[in-house]
Design brief:
Blueprint: E1 2-3, E2 6-7, H1 14-25, E3 31-32, H2 33-40, H3 46-66, H4 71-74, E4 75-77, E5 81-84, H5 91-98, H6 104-113, H7 125-149, H8 152-161, H9 166-178, H10 182-198, H11 205-217, H12 233-244, E6 249-255, H13 261-274, E7 278-283, H14 295-303, H15 307-313, H16 318-329, E8 334-339, H17 346-361, E9 365-371, H18 375-381, E10 388-392, H19 397-408, H20 413-423, H21 427-439, E11 443-446, E12 449-452, H22 464-474, H23 479-490, H24 496-503, H25 507-519, E13 523-524, E14 533-534, H26 537-545, H27 549-565, H28 571-580, H29 584-600, H30 604-619, H31 625-645, H32 648-665, H33 668-684, H34 688-705, H35 708-724, H36 728-745, H37 748-764, H38 768-785, H39 787-803, H40 807-823, H41 838-855, H42 859-869, H43 873-877, H44 879-896, H45 901-911, H46 928-939, H47 944-961, H48 966-980, H49 983-1004
Length: about 1000
């Protein structure tokens, strides 16, 4: 960009350059800051987006100051708006105006204004749209120039953009023939034919006739010998094509430091010699004190004369005449390789475009290699031409593996894979690490064959030359810039404000440093996450190592203090800095907070990792009561994480550790948390006696300390255990006390959980009126408690509808629960006592629907549900859940009774685990004995009589303990006895079924929806 004849250096990053262009092109009015955030940082949170806009604006203003322009005269900044106020001509607008012109001079002037894609490499919506408009206008101008004047320069540019334009090829063929170059004309013909063939088309008849004539008169060139080269083949092809052409060429090769620019030039020098060209090398050096830098060396090499004498004889005009003098000295057509051009300055830099221009015009190939940080500056020197630009990136995995395989065989491929991951394909880093492997003896050559002696490559030391190379880059812009890089290496998510506070720098100094680091390619702005990140992990590794131990500790401590004072949730970052600065107790507490935050969103693997980090810190400390209390709480978090992961045995072990440490630390609150975690884990493992003992101890502690919330949780556990043990009064007493305390707490989530648990307990003993009251009372609390509690409570209400045989209500409730679960994508763990997460809630909803399908005579639907639930992760995690699915599968197969179903049911019944506990509320009064007897009777097995007797005893026991669906269980038994021909048992079981069904209907009263007792009075149980 030029302002008043002054070249403004481009800002450091593509995003900053895009913002500069946007402001210039929207100069007709002020642009709101909010609008800029939407255009440039739409996916970034507002705080980070505003920080990025601040950094970008700073970079633009700095670039203006460097160019000697007053930023206030160019960019007007207000609190809420920015506006470009300096007069400026925009090339893309001038090109667009020329699209309707018939003036050849105006068209050619517009072509000269086009310097490549608009903001190349930026794929945000705005620059892409502007790039397409500018590109389209440019192609229209080229096409008009070709049509009106058959301009070969315009035609060649048009073919480069649109390789299918026959008119452009025709103009190029005419120009080549006019210059007496039939081979060049034939190449244009062949390119046209090949391009159209890609589209399934062919040239016009007139063009085809010209092609045939050229082929008769032209001599096809000999095949070119190619040299195997791992990687950079596309770039090398571009240079080889230039060598083969008769025309001159100007090629800019840019890339990160160490990316392989010099290696590419060396390879291409060999290609140039093979093509019969002379080779001229120009190598720039850093801080060259000579006025004309390496051009004096080139003059002496080409002329054999002393450069100092030439400068003296030029009477002060040496710089103006040197470019014109050098070109005629070249002996024949040459390839000129200028390496490290970004190091040129002063007269040496001004000579670069002058010499390159005259050399390319004379038919020579000029390849200029430079680092990315100098690309915009060098590119701006060639405003009047359109050089070919090659950007070197990291090498691909296959390219590097091929290089290693070719040199050392396939034995080193595993090592090469590891090195690729660590180097991210950066060739200097990759081959440096590979060389280090040989020096460390990890790779050895035995009898002419390479092999891996030891590994892994992740532990290979960084070679000193690479470390020195990176250090030099980090220190290139001064101490402050290096300090900022080092601090960012310790805290990758630090903002400029954080860095200023920790380093005790003024914020403008930090912004300048970040601008320099972005310009050097050491940092980049990722599309999401932290505001800045290192372009390579090895650079971050070296930056972190530049800080001596004492200062590193102080910086970590400063970051910890700043994060601790932050209003944001920064527990994990704070903990890591505290651990690194030796604040072990504080680190343990913050790792605990971070683990608990992870558990809130069910991120159990993150929680486990954070707990382990916290425990590692605290184990380095001497024994003390406060230390043991935090360790106890960390083990509680680990136990909760294992419950989330379905590893119940591990949960028990860590809960026991929590209790032991809490007792040792004599911390009542930690002991209470450990006992609560242990009781939940024991229930998960179905160790009911231990669960009851632990829960009762925890309940006593909770009463004594006034911790009502934990008391409610423990009472629910106590009630659940008593329910499994068929202790009616104890189960109902604990559940009712828990519900009353929950209501007094006035916490919706606790009320919903207690209401749901008590509702299910009331159902077990047919207290349907009380269950219906709870269903009404708990619904509003569940809705307030969040989506998971709401879905869970819908499922509990569906159970009540099932036992009341109100299947329409059941369908509506399950549908609502399923819709709620399906619409939510976030992971939460908000029902710790119930142990209910989205997966389990969805499982139970499907399972209840499958059981209801059986009762309603839909055997196929029930069977489909059982088949769908069998691969569920929960199926293998709990024998009780596995039993549920097996019972459903057995019943559905027996009800369908297709060929082979009975045998399948018998096999599945044998897989059911016998449970000494009373059936839970989701077991529907089924048992292994009953399921097996039903299948055995259908298959007429030899042991059917014994199976029926065992089933009758089991159903009688269950009916006495927990009535549940004993009516349906007796009905199943009667059917099995009938299948086996045992009329006496069939009659006895049938009568028991009728008595039990009548009793269930009486218990339901007006709410009953079963056929034997008429319709339901919906005022008592409604679905809202």
């Amino acid at each position: 960009m030029w302002l008043g004849g002054t070249l403004v250096p481009p800002p450091a990053t593509a995003k900053m350059r895009a913002l500069l262009a946007y402001l210039a092109m929207h100069r007709s009015a002020a642009v709101s800051r909010e609008g800029l955030l939407e255009v440039f940082w739409p996916e970034v949170d507002e705080e980070r987006a505003r920080a990025s806009l601040k950094t970008a604006t700073w970079s633009i203003r700095r670039a203006l100051r460097v160019a000697g322009c007053d930023p206030e005269a160019v960019l007007q900044t207000e609190r809420s708006t920015l506006r470009w106020i300096a007069p400026i001509d925009v090339d893309t607008e001038s090109i667009a105006r020329a699209t309707s012109s018939n003036d050849i001079a105006e068209l050619r002037a517009a072509i000269d204004l086009y310097h490549g894609e608009f903001l190349p490499g930026d794929y945000d919506e705005w620059p892409v749209a502007e790039r397409e408009r500018a590109g389209t206008s440019y192609e229209v101008v080229l096409g008009r120039c070709v049509a009106l004047a058959k301009d070969p320069a315009a035609a060649e540019l048009l073919v480069a953009r649109n390789p299918y334009d026959e008119a452009a090829y025709d103009a190029l063929v005419d120009a080549a023939i006019a210059m007496g170059r039939p081979l060049a004309a034939l190449r244009w013909v062949e390119r046209c034919e090949a391009a159209l063939l890609e589209l399934g088309a062919r040239p016009s008849d007139a063009f085809a006739m010209r092609a045939a004539e050229l082929r008769r008169s032209a001599r096809t060139p000999a095949s070119e010998l190619r040299i195997a080269f791992a990687g950079r083949q596309a770039e090398r092809d571009t240079l080889q094509a230039a060598f083969a052409s008769d025309a001159g060429a100007l090629i800019l090769i840019s890339g990160d430091a160490g990316i392989g620019k010099t290696t590419l030039l060396e390879r291409c020098a060999g290609d140039a010699l093979e093509a019969g060209l002379g080779v001229v090398r120009v190598r720039s050096v850093d801080n060259d004190p000579r006025t004309y830098g390496p051009w004096g060396d080139l003059f002496e090499a080409l002329s054999g004369e002393r450069f100092a004498e030439f400068v003296t004889s030029a009477s002060g005009e040496g710089g103006a005449t040197l470019a014109a003098v050098l070109q005629p000295m070249l002996r024949g057509r040459s390839a000129i390789f200028v390496d490290d051009a970004h190091l040129l300055g002063g007269e040496a830099l001004r000579l670069l475009p002058a010499f390159a221009g005259v050399a390319a015009a004379a038919g020579h190939i000029v390849a200029i290699a430079l680092r990315d940080e100098g690309r915009q500056r060098i590119r701006a020197l060639f405003e009047g031409s359109t050089p070919t630009e090659l950007r070197l990136r990291a090498l691909g995995r296959d390219e590097l593996l091929f290089a290693v395989r070719r040199s050392a065989g396939e034995a080193l491929e595993p090592l090469a894979e590891e090195l690729y991951e660590r180097s991210a394909g950066h060739p200097l880093f990759f081959f440096g690490l590979l060389d280090m492997c040989t020096r460390e003896g990890r790779v050895v050559n035995e009898n002419g064959a390479w092999k891996i002696a030891r590994g892994p490559a992740a532990h290979v030391a960084l070679p000193e030359n690479i470390r020195s190379f990176i250090e030099t880059r980090l220190r290139a812009r001064g101490t402050a810039t290096c300090d900022v890089a080092c601090a960012l290496a310790l805290e990758p998510e630090a903002t400029p404000s954080d860095l200023a506070g920790v380093l005790a720098f003024e914020e403008p100094l930090v912004l300048d440093a970040i601008d320099d680091l972005l310009g050097l390619g050491i940092l980049r702005e990722p599309p999401s996450g932290p505001q800045f990140e290192f372009t390579h992990d090895l650079v971050r590794e070296v930056a972190a190592g530049l800080i001596h131990a004492g200062r590193r500790v102080r910086l970590h401590a400063a970051f910890a203090r700043r994060l601790e004072a932050s209003a944001r949730s920064e527990s994990l970052r704070c903990a890591r800095h505290e651990a690194a600065s030796g604040q072990l107790a504080a680190a343990g507490r913050d790792f605990l907070r971070a683990a608990e935050e992870a558990l809130e969103v069910n991120a159990w693997s993150d929680a486990l990792e954070r707990c382990e980090s916290g425990l590692a810190c605290l184990r380095r400390m001497k024994h003390s009561a406060p230390r043991d209390a935090v360790i106890a709480r960390l083990h509680v978090a680990v136990a909760r994480a294992h419950v989330c992961a379905g590893d119940d045995a591990a949960a028990v072990a860590d809960a026991q550790e929590a209790v032991a440490y809490a007792r040792r630390g004599n911390d009542g609150q930690a002991l209470l948390a450990g006992l609560a975690a242990a009781s939940t884990a024991y229930v998960k493992c179905h160790r009911m006696i231990e669960a009851l003992d632990t829960a009762e101890e925890a309940a006593a502690l909770a009463r004594a300390s006034g911790n009502t919330e934990v008391l409610v949780e423990m009472l629910l556990t106590i009630g659940s255990v008593h329910c499994h043990r068929a202790a009616r009064d104890a189960a109902l007493g604990a559940g009712r006390e828990a519900y009353a305390l929950a209501v007094a707490l006035e916490r919706s989530e606790t009320i919903a959980e207690a209401a749901g648990e008590l509702l299910r307990t009331e159902i077990v003993w047919w207290n349907f009126a009380e269950a219906a009251r709870l269903a009404e009372a708990g619904a509003s609390a569940a809705a307030r408690a969040g989506w998971l509690a709401d879905a869970s409570f819908h499922i509990s209400r569906a159970l009540l509808a099932y036992y009341l045989e109100r299947f329409d209500d059941l369908d509506r409730l399950l549908e609502r629960a399923s819709d709620t679960l399906a619409q939510r994508t976030e992971r939460r763990w908000h029902l710790p006592h119930a142990g209910l997460d989205r997966l389990k809630a969805r499982f139970f909803a499907d399972y209840i629907a499958g059981v209801a399908a059986c009762v309603r005579g839909d055997a196929d639907g029930a069977l489909a549900t059982a088949v769908r639930l069998s691969p569920s992760p929960l199926y293998a995690s709990s024998y009780m859940i596995r039993n549920n699915v097996l019972h459903l599968h057995v019943r559905a197969l027996l009800d369908r009774n297709a060929r082979g179903d009975a045998r399948k049911a018998l096999a599945l019944a044998r897989e059911i685990v016998a449970d000494e506990l009373a059936p839970g509320v989701l077991d529907f009064s089924t048992s292994k004995a009953l399921a097996y007897a039903c299948a055995a009777a259908r298959c007429a097995t030899n042991d059917v009589a014994a199976a029926l007797a065992a089933a009758e005893a089991d159903v009688n026991r269950a009916a006495q303990a927990t009535p549940l669906e004993c009516d349906r269980a007796y009905a199943y038994l009667a059917a099995a006895a009938d299948d086996a021909g045992d009329a006496e048992l069939a009659s006895r079981a049938s009568q028991a079924a009728d008595v039990a069904r009548t009793a269930r209907g009486v218990a339901a009263g007006s709410m009953w929806g079963g056929q034997s007792h008429g319709g339901a009075a919906k005022a008592h149980f409604t679905v809202r």
